[in-house]
Batch of 3 targets.
Target 1
Amino acid sequence: MELRIVRRLIPEWGTTYGPPGEGPFPAVMVLHGSEGAWSGWSHRNAAILAAHGFLAFPFGYSSGGNAWNAGHIVDCPLDRTAQALAALREFPFVGPRVGLYGVSRGAEHALLLASLMAKEAMAGLPEAIAAHSPPDVVCGGFDARSFRDAGDPGWQSWDGGKRAWTWKGSAEGLLPTTPIEVERYPGPLFLSHGLKDRLWSVDMTRRLEKRLLAHERQPDVHYYEGEDHLPGSEGENRHHELLIDFFERHLG
């Protein structure tokens, strides 16, 4: 029996999921959210993409943690993600077009990385980016050990005293509330958000859309009626239909 989804290792970087055969395949780097690299959600999302013809690379960027603890997103070096993206491009099974897909903090990560790479005119920009439940500004550092439910008194979704991201060893320009300069990225963008998101307001995506339109950009934007930060079964099925169609059009 031939497997329909095959794991392949990028030495020193991590595993990928893709179709059987020699390729080359259109590729997507998958960026997890605050659930962390150990939770497995990014691997599950990568397997869904792999089932539809993409070579998907779930890149774990959170620090610490284990199967029971998500770890943290503090002083995460975005330039290391740029290096991982370059390693994905050099992988023998990967074709000439590579995309980025991030959810929540992963969406923030994807948009920030693209804006910084574009700002510095770096080679290897992703050919397409999808961001689900993204913020429109840089958010603070996150440590799962201090996370509490939104109903707890004094709750906050991140520890504002810490920085989430660095770029080439510095957090300058990446302080919380700094607008993400998504308009710098010249490629196709997919933005989606649940209208009933209780964690990050859908107004964040609306502001991203408004800013892109003001710069004469035409992003693919989808608002999901009745869906929370992460969509339920029916909503997720529709999200994946739209997401896969987007990547097929721009990477396929």
Note: Residues 102 and 154 are 28 Å apart (CA to CA).
Target 2
Amino acid sequence: MLELLPPTSPCPPHADPRLERTTTRIRDLVAGTHLQMALSIGRIVVEEIYDGDLKSWRRRGPKDPSLRRLAADPRLTISASALYRALGIFELKVRFADHPMWDMLTACHLRAVLGLPESEQCRLLDLATTSAWTSQTLEHAAAISRDNHKTSRGGRSRKSPVVRAIETAERALAGDQDVDVASPAVLVELPAEQRDDLLRRLSLIRERCASLATALEGQLPESHARSESKPGVSSYAPH
């Protein structure tokens, strides 16, 4: 989905005519599907900024000064990330112009494969088309592909959502912040209704944490699990 931003200031003085034309044409694209809009925006940028030469964009990349100035223009009404995604989707259209996916997939599908090697893009888009994948299914497959390529290059594997959620909760509640948000003192002045709601939420979180801890302990060697449960060794113990 393209993130639309509110229109702001008028044309600045001494602006680059190419950027002015590009901004105007993109702002005129207020109708159609998200995929049609992304393709049109990508085509406009390539035509105006790169004189219709897609290879020029590939060579110069996202750090190209003209592209960065365009992305920073407050009158553009779309975010910088949406602009870069539109360019990536337009590049897919050029490379896979006759692929049947264009009649079946959405912008969310195509966004999932951006940044992957061309061979992986082709493989996943073929599968998504022939198997009628949802965008979520394709996103999951693309995430696995990214992890595999990072690992093969010696990079760090992508963390799963549950790992990121647990780490975020630990940072918030373990006193790592400037203000100790986990201190019981902050709960004293809460209204009774809010305290009841927090108790319900904490009960659910405690149950989920206990379930996760049980699952993790089941994957540990028996000797390691015993050492974790000894006094003085940090371990999760739900109450």
Note: Residues 4-11, 175-179, 223-239 have pLDDT under 50 and may be disordered.
Target 3
Amino acid sequence: MIKKQSRKVTDKLLSRLQKVECPDTTFFGERFPIVMKRGNGMFVHDIDKNRYLDFTACFGVLALGHRPKVTIQAIRKQCSQLIHGMGDVHPTLPKIKLLEILAEISPFKNAKSLLGQSGGDAIENALKTAMLATNRSRFLSFAGGYHGLQFAPLTLNHREEFTKGFESWIKDKSVSLPFPYFPSEISSDNIILDPNMLKKKHHLFSPEEVLELLEKELKKKEFAALVLEPYQGRGGKRGFSPDFMKNCQTLCKKYGTLVIFDEIYTGFGRTGKMFALEHYNVIPDLLCVGKAMGGGLPISACIGDIMDVWEKSKGEARQTQTFLGHPLACSVAYETIKYIQKYLPTFQKELINIDNAFFKFKENMELKALSQKFPFEIRGKGFMKGIWFYSQEEAFCVSLMETLLENGFIVLPEGPRADVLSLTPPLIANAGQFNKILNSIVSILENK
């Protein structure tokens, strides 16, 4: 790993970037960002020839790492035949094969899909489908959820950082429910968290309070769907309990509201299962997927067995895009899904060793008395972990991210207060690599 980071070329290129890019896109700090040049497996090299272990998988997209053989081979094969097509007019074989495998692995008996190019597209397609199915036009979501920044998904977002300037568009289109806390966040390792502190500082409510608020809204019979991430990505790796999830589904069914699972981040092995819904034994009405599905190419899907609420096309499709069912993206997605299907048991075996690495991390923090100075909780599932420093000030993990970058690790801060350090590496990550970053975190905290 790098010892002293060179930024000579990086700083020059970032100066050029700032002159030509919308200022509300890339975050610039004193030591951030890098300019990525090439990647292989778990590793990324920047323009100044520094090497990093990638613990983001580039927003969870690169489930098989950077430039895996399966992706390169699929791209080469499809490029030799057809790169672009006419997805809603003249379909291609890759599109048909992709839709078939999505139906096969989905939890639905008669699954049909709407393809898109991004996670936000999948959410927008789900919202449209829910409106057609229920004849309702409002939605429910949970605080901390991130479902995309296009106008329709943006209505589900209630973080001012994302909605500022667009309030007039968002107004009255959705209701945000507070996120619930669960026993693991009240008492863990003999540390008891105060429910009043959780509510006041972190805006976390008891499951009973949240369910009561949910039913109060559902009784209005105005809501087409409840949209949620089984484990929140940008929200800080927060998850629900199986009982809570089942209660949500029961209440929604009672009042005629659909349940939409946003598995754009959690799908395709990220949580140790093909889909995170398997942890809850709950089947939603609609399932949105993306990110890892495309193997690095932009593609997404909204899947369900209620797609027949859309009328059969009469020649002018109501739901299409120029790049819908892009043959190159469909081909790579198909091969990526097949590969994850085949090797998921292997990834699952390594998770036992990875979970043991986190156990050793906890022991190391306690041994060095860092658990008292920096109390924390481990959140998430599988290859989707978050270290929640719940007693620290806002943006605590921003500086931690920057220091880790200097030490050769690419990570992201998450949560409404940026007090969660997110670790979502490719599924090919091993316990040894987790040990490296966890030991580095301990060393950094020792010097704080």
Note: The chain has two domains: 8-67+344-446, 70-340.
